[in-house]
Design goal:
The chain is α/β, with parallel strands linked by helices. The chain has two domains: 3-224, Rossmann fold (3-Layer(aba) Sandwich), CATH 3.40.50.300; 228-287, Alpha-Beta Plaits (2-Layer Sandwich), CATH 3.30.70. It contains eleven helices and 14 strands. It has a six-stranded mixed sheet, sandwiched between helices. β4 (58-63) and β5 (66-68) form a beta hairpin. α3 (94-104) packs across α4 and α8 (219-226) packs across α11. The radius of gyration is 22 Å and the shape is globular.
């Protein structure tokens, strides 16, 4: 399929620190592509480079057939952006935020007014067109930011952590709306810290760390490639003794995080058998997921 966004040997430094280091990226039309990574991995800088908001030190970018940053303005006319932080105008109503933003694209007011009812319905804000921004909840503001990003009927959406700070109900509503967009042929570039979000939404994804892509593929491919299929999470007062006696012997790999031991294995039954009747230990048996892959490849240390 055609690539709507590509980057080759992309580099960007601030001072002595290179935050994007020879990045290669290709996003196909109609897919939801995830860009994952710890804080400071270079995700937001990559998005800003691809939008032409900052200039690369080296490399080539093509956005919807336009070279960036040379023709970034022309490319951005066909792009929608949901930034990390909501930047709605608090002095305007819901409708006015959409109207004014549409004018930035040169869209006639009549066309914008025709689009607003459908966008408000899509974002779950029907009936709130005249409300001021200060009266909206955090989830409503986030959904309005998504609606605003669609005002120009974009071919490609950049979503930078679109559900951060939202409650589960709001997150699920936005997930549903994003799935509707890809079903309608829109292309999405998504950054997120929620691995379940990436696993639900992304056709393909790349994991980025310290400015480099360290793994790429579909969520299922990455799980199968990098992680044993079953995980046993064990915690409790008797953990140390149990780990010494059974963990390393029966699991392919064990990792300690705080008071929990994560045992990665192809067959959890022998491990579970050693836990039967142990009142001093509790455990959770589950399939491996994308978060396990992420933590294995980027580490469990806190990033600030």
């Amino acid at each position: 399929m055609a690539s709507v966004l590509s980057a080759s040997n992309l580099r960007k430094s601030y001072g002595r620190q290179e935050v994007v280091s020879g990045l290669e990226l290709s996003i196909r039309a109609g897919e939801c592509f995830g860009l994952l990574g710890p804080n400071g991995a270079g995700k937001t800088t990559t998005l800003r480079l691809c939008l032409g908001l900052i200039e690369p030190d080296a490399g080539e970018i093509s956005l919807l057939g336009h070279p960036v940053p040379e023709k970034a303005r022309e490319a951005r006319m066909r792009v929608g952006v949901v930034p990390q932080a909501d930047n709605l105008d608090p002095d305007f109503s819901v409708r006015e935020n959409l109207l004014v933003f549409g004018r930035y694209f040169g869209i006639p007011d009549r066309t914008i007014e025709e689009r607003i009812p459908d966008l408000l319905e899509f974002s779950g804000l029907a009936g709130r067109a005249q409300e001021k921004i200060v009266t909206l909840s955090g989830g409503m503001k986030r959904r309005l930011t998504l609606a605003r990003a669609l005002i120009n009927d974009p071919e490609l959406l950049f979503l930078d952590e679109p559900t951060t700070g939202l409650d589960p109900q709001a997150r699920h509503l936005i997930w549903e709306r994003l799935k509707q967009l890809t079903a309608r042929g829109k292309t999405i570039l998504l950054t997120t810290h929620f691995m379940d979000e990436a696993e639900r939404l992304c056709t393909r994804l790349s994991i980025m760390d310290r400015g480099r892509i360290i793994a790429s593929g579909s969520p299922r491919e990455l799980i199968a490639r990098h992680i044993e299929p079953q995980v046993l999470e064990v915690h409790g007062e008797g953990l140390e003794a149990w780990a010494d006696a059974h963990g390393a012997r029966l699991a392919e790999r064990c990792e300690r995080a705080g008071e929990t031991l994560f045992c990665y294995t192809r067959d959890a039954e022998p491990l579970i058998a050693t836990l039967q009747g142990r009142a001093d230990l509790r455990y959770l048996h589950r399939p491996a997921d994308l978060e396990d892959v992420f933590l294995k490849l980027t580490g469990r240390d806190l990033r600030d």
